[in-house]
Amino acid sequence: MLLKPKQKLVFIGDSVTDCDRAKPHGEGLFQALGNGYVSIVDAFLQSSYPELGIRVVNKGTSGNTVRDLTDRWEEDVIEQKPDWLSVMIGINDVWRQYDSPMQIEQHVYIEEYKDKLTELVVRSRKNTENIVLMTPFFIEPNNQDAMRNTMDQYGEVVKAIANEHDCIFVNTQEAFNKVLEDLYPASIAWDRVHPNQTGHAVLAKAFLRAIEFDWQK
Amino acid sequence: MLLKPKQKLVFIGDSVTDCDRAKPHGEGLFQALGNGYVSIVDAFLQSSYPELGIRVVNKGTSGNTVRDLTDRWEEDVIEQKPDWLSVMIGINDVWRQYDSPMQIEQHVYIEEYKDKLTELVVRSRKNTENIVLMTPFFIEPNNQDAMRNTMDQYGEVVKAIANEHDCIFVNTQEAFNKVLEDLYPASIAWDRVHPNQTGHAVLAKAFLRAIEFDWQK
Amino acid sequence: MLLKPKQKLVFIGDSVTDCDRAKPHGEGLFQALGNGYVSIVDAFLQSSYPELGIRVVNKGTSGNTVRDLTDRWEEDVIEQKPDWLSVMIGINDVWRQYDSPMQIEQHVYIEEYKDKLTELVVRSRKNTENIVLMTPFFIEPNNQDAMRNTMDQYGEVVKAIANEHDCIFVNTQEAFNKVLEDLYPASIAWDRVHPNQTGHAVLAKAFLRAIEFDWQK
Amino acid sequence: MLLKPKQKLVFIGDSVTDCDRAKPHGEGLFQALGNGYVSIVDAFLQSSYPELGIRVVNKGTSGNTVRDLTDRWEEDVIEQKPDWLSVMIGINDVWRQYDSPMQIEQHVYIEEYKDKLTELVVRSRKNTENIVLMTPFFIEPNNQDAMRNTMDQYGEVVKAIANEHDCIFVNTQEAFNKVLEDLYPASIAWDRVHPNQTGHAVLAKAFLRAIEFDWQK
Amino acid sequence: MLLKPKQKLVFIGDSVTDCDRAKPHGEGLFQALGNGYVSIVDAFLQSSYPELGIRVVNKGTSGNTVRDLTDRWEEDVIEQKPDWLSVMIGINDVWRQYDSPMQIEQHVYIEEYKDKLTELVVRSRKNTENIVLMTPFFIEPNNQDAMRNTMDQYGEVVKAIANEHDCIFVNTQEAFNKVLEDLYPASIAWDRVHPNQTGHAVLAKAFLRAIEFDWQK
Amino acid sequence: MLLKPKQKLVFIGDSVTDCDRAKPHGEGLFQALGNGYVSIVDAFLQSSYPELGIRVVNKGTSGNTVRDLTDRWEEDVIEQKPDWLSVMIGINDVWRQYDSPMQIEQHVYIEEYKDKLTELVVRSRKNTENIVLMTPFFIEPNNQDAMRNTMDQYGEVVKAIANEHDCIFVNTQEAFNKVLEDLYPASIAWDRVHPNQTGHAVLAKAFLRAIEFDWQK
Amino acid sequence: MLLKPKQKLVFIGDSVTDCDRAKPHGEGLFQALGNGYVSIVDAFLQSSYPELGIRVVNKGTSGNTVRDLTDRWEEDVIEQKPDWLSVMIGINDVWRQYDSPMQIEQHVYIEEYKDKLTELVVRSRKNTENIVLMTPFFIEPNNQDAMRNTMDQYGEVVKAIANEHDCIFVNTQEAFNKVLEDLYPASIAWDRVHPNQTGHAVLAKAFLRAIEFDWQK
Amino acid sequence: MLLKPKQKLVFIGDSVTDCDRAKPHGEGLFQALGNGYVSIVDAFLQSSYPELGIRVVNKGTSGNTVRDLTDRWEEDVIEQKPDWLSVMIGINDVWRQYDSPMQIEQHVYIEEYKDKLTELVVRSRKNTENIVLMTPFFIEPNNQDAMRNTMDQYGEVVKAIANEHDCIFVNTQEAFNKVLEDLYPASIAWDRVHPNQTGHAVLAKAFLRAIEFDWQK
What we know:
The structure is a homooctamer. The first copy, chain A, is α/β, with parallel strands linked by helices. Chain A has one domain: SGNH hydrolase (Rossmann fold). Chain A has 8 helices and 5 strands. A 5-stranded parallel beta sheet of chain A has the order 2-1-3-4-5, sandwiched between helices. Chain A is globular. The N and C termini of chain A lie close together (10 Å). The model of chain A has no long low-confidence stretch (mean pLDDT 97).
């Protein structure tokens, strides 16, 4: 288990991270962490390692792209002074290219995505020792599908940045691919993006394995 | 892992099981299993064993005592023809004795509790191969507390029935006790009964261990 | 234009037909026909052929399969005594096999689908001169996708019944395929089933062409 | 078909254009274009010419007169940089003279109407190649009716401006008159102003014909 | 003033009478008489003749035709044992012919209207000494308008029945015509049927004059 | 009839005047004048004198005392430039002394009342030819009742100001007293302040008589 | 203190007793006793005599007269088997005579009131040892007021029945009269019937004194 | 009785004081004092001493700690110029340490609590003659419970400040302890903090005794 006593872990991302968390600050009582993978991660951390006193904060916001993260990085990440930071962004960057093809000002193409995400990692590197980068994903098993194909390329960008900047890398698309061998996408997410609890368990397990969570504890 | 392909697993109980599940039938899309331990159990079963096609149904109802279960056992349990059945009941049987001391017709004392729960197990034994009995619990570390003390006695009854009728036994109180060594009750449940996600993770893990779930899968 | 003065045209189907129509009777003022393709068909009939006095009724109901149509055929179709009847059913018959794979009692497999739909056509043949059969569809361009593939087979069943029973046949999947050469599915329907107005225009145009609507009128 | 690939088409007007569009910007997913003629026009453009990628924006606002358009022309029209602009205004300019005769500050008389509308066309002419001017209308067949009579005069003003400034002219009153030969006004609009879908189809068809839409495509 | 101490006056009719009255019984405190002409009549009776103790009951129901009155005449009129009865019906009988021309089962043509209204008057004649028949109306000054023309014919029927059966006759159309010399219909009722308070004052004054109300009292 | 063609009549006061009028401006369609005496006055003016085109505006605000009127007199009265102005204020000035005896900062005692009301009349005198002053009232027949007694004194102040400043005087208390000879207060107003429609008719008739309204017209 | 350990005390009456209690059964957690005098009585009994375990039930229902109590006496009183019963009824019996003078079928005159209340006491006498009769009241200091005068007569009836049938008598009017020497009615109840918390304290104290509650305990 | 005629009594504190009081000012009609102990105290003061005209104001705010009081002391206490001030604060200062152990910025430890509370008393001492300090409490009978133990220490601080600064001291914990000898905590407060009416009666009685309220009056 990589987390140390009293450490603070901040999650940031889009609607998959948000999941109806408390606003403006996603921390504390009354399901403030939302009802997605962040909540599952926290529940397992607290119940398996109650002695550690890990502090989990959810800063995901629905509809965000990497541009939106850039706008709020100072307030929502830097000022939080996290010991651990987990970033999962890019789904909307890609999705808008496919569901709103004419509204091009909403598209974040791959070069901009790469530049902005790199910049965010660099900015946080100074104060945050541990950064986890999770790929965006599309719950579609056909990798010839146009949007899945683009999403895979954005995932490659995440992988490259993680390697270069010494982050922990979590390949969420790969985690979903394994489940999609047995399950059709519609049983996890009607729109192939917003997962039900099964999909959030896929994400939570991928994250917990990456931080070497001990399931037997 | 004790569950076999295509098996059906029914949960029954009170508000801790219910957790805003779909009514009248707690199964299927759109968070129909509620947002408590049943949902976590299902999410881990589906994401770790997608090839099994396990079918999970939530039949918990808020406020129920063992008397209420008796009234609806035929329709909500027998007619479901479950391969696996999990029962967690007794919290309200005890709680009403402490929060509504004058309304004695709402109290279910320990002899009636034992008789009725035994009868339910016997009725289901004919058609259901696997029965899991989970103890009721009170998220209070002081075992000299009057209500905690009573709850422990009801837990002993559950244990005895499980032994006698060859059920899998899950000691939820014990699972909570371990966490309570480090956490104060109010951080898990303001009323010491309805847990937050941390508490539901305690319950889900206790159940999953009992069915020999493989966390590495 | 095949419709004659004062004729009555009844549409029946699932949520794609329903589109929030008035209940229990979808006819008349205040957007009673819903906001989908039925409404567009009616608006074009009334505005282009006001002298005909065509009467349009929407009897679609969300979530329906061919089983549900069978249950309400007498009241919702036969008793309406339509001159024209349009049926589009089958999406939920297929979808439940893919989004709820364990709840097999909700699946309507192809043999049952064929038998029930044939029976409905035969029952209405006696009193209704003109029957239009529209295929179910899945807004997915990849015909190797499992659900699209199944949907195509159900579409073939519809075609065969139309041929055998002298109905007008509308291939909605083909109509969507043409549009999907230029548009990604997410721009028409996030869940690839419930279309936006563009998708409903695809359906309305396919229907209007089948009844030889004169666009220049 | 007069529209070219990737062109942007902006509609502006009053409640007949608005029809519950998204605010502040009427474009994109989730029925953002409202449920009136703009939505029908868009649905036919996208479904018949998906390869063109036409971008449609709805800037109609309920209750507006030509005065209100003047106030928001810079932000809602000029800044949009449309290739095509469609304007339908004047109903409220006239209506207030008849339903609120004492509140004269709400009346926009014909001279002011002519001046302001001319000014708007002139302002947009510099940047927008194609301007469509649609007349206001009153769904009343009796042209001796006082309000209908006034509305006809405003329609004449629109025609004159269109001629002078080389705009495409759409005579919506004429389009309604044809339908009113067979239908009583109350079957299209209870208040003779806000049409149902039949009335919006009249408007959409008149617009689509003006831009030489190919119905056979 | 024709009303005597302690007499009971029942109004029956459609939405113009109903005006959001209390259901099922329109009498008593808290604006139970609705907000239309019935309420104005009652307010003037009570404030000018407080010593009489007149009892006013509103039994109007939105959407009613003479057919609906027939169905509920026993319960809503006969059982009330009114000393005075006021009937204003027929607007919907005519309106449906014009706003829903294809739904002919909703039309009440003039012969049926005459027969049914006559029958109702005859049934009430035995127990109710004073019957007031008010014509239906259409707030449209052009008597060549198709619906206005039909409404006038129904008004003639009411007049004939009143003469033959010795009822007090109130010509509401005539009362509105006088006001329409100066006011355009839209300033009284957007749909030319449901009046604002000015229109209800027209109706209330016509009724009060018919019962020889003393305005100077 | 004292009002002349095209004149504007503004009512100002407290909740008895307000009666849920449109905010911020109480004029025009959709019951903007509220549902109290102002609405009745307007309805009778428009229906009996449609040729005059009288413009009625309601500026009553619930809970107001003469202090509140002073604060908003410029905007709500002077800027309206009324030809006629009707003021009814004072109920809350007195009522707070009786229902909130300890909150003395909410009490407006008789000297302040007299000074402020006089000042308002003087300010409006310059631009408004016709001012109607209506007394406050308390629907209590016992003039020895403490609050009724105080209200009578405020009414005397109103009378004196009207005399001195040449205003039309309306004694609403006297109008109510006449009705209270036959009706118990609870049948007009449960709290003896907010009247039902009978009470509002009392007020409307008193006002209409003061302006020499011709009831026979 | 007259109440003994484990005794059950049932309150019945109208809206003053009801005060938004839980329906159908007014007992237990979550403010089930409503927010009036019954709740205050219970709170003082439980906090001063926690060792007694007194059980309090609220069966008041808004709008009730003694007729309504008669209809539900078996179910709401007899079946409850109370050791103590408190009845306060009559306000609506009198009030309807004054606020709805023409609706005479809603009036319960004094003879009927006396007969019905006597009958209820007799029926309960067999099973209930202790009966408290509270007078109805009217928060009006002027005993020449018509409604107050009538209410006093009903109070006399209550007194007579209490004497004859050996009940504890509580004169609520007298209790209010004392307070009304210093407070104007509007500061306790705007409608002189439904008291605020001060008025409910008056009622609670009168009741508690009648059962010899020890305030020093 | 220590309070004198016309004195003003202000209560300040957290949710136990707040109890849904009117915002921003908790005084006057319509249950503005909330539904907790403040309302009971006021109701008894007004009903037993109506001649005194005591003015009670509730300034409690849910969730407040002594830090929040410091922030709003000037506006909510000093500017009120109370003759009497009652302060009950500290529950949240302690609770957050136990229900949100990781969010340390929300914890108010005992030194800060002592300093801030002392400062507030000193600031008010100049203008307010009478100050009542009520201890915070925890409705838990086990004084070895961690949170109860901490709360007792904060109570000791209150006692010391009261002694030093000549305030009236109310030991609410002691008042609850007495009741807890007979009642289990859950019957007073499910979360052991927010009491039902029984608990608020405990608080109100403790306060009233401290000000030498005469229960026999």
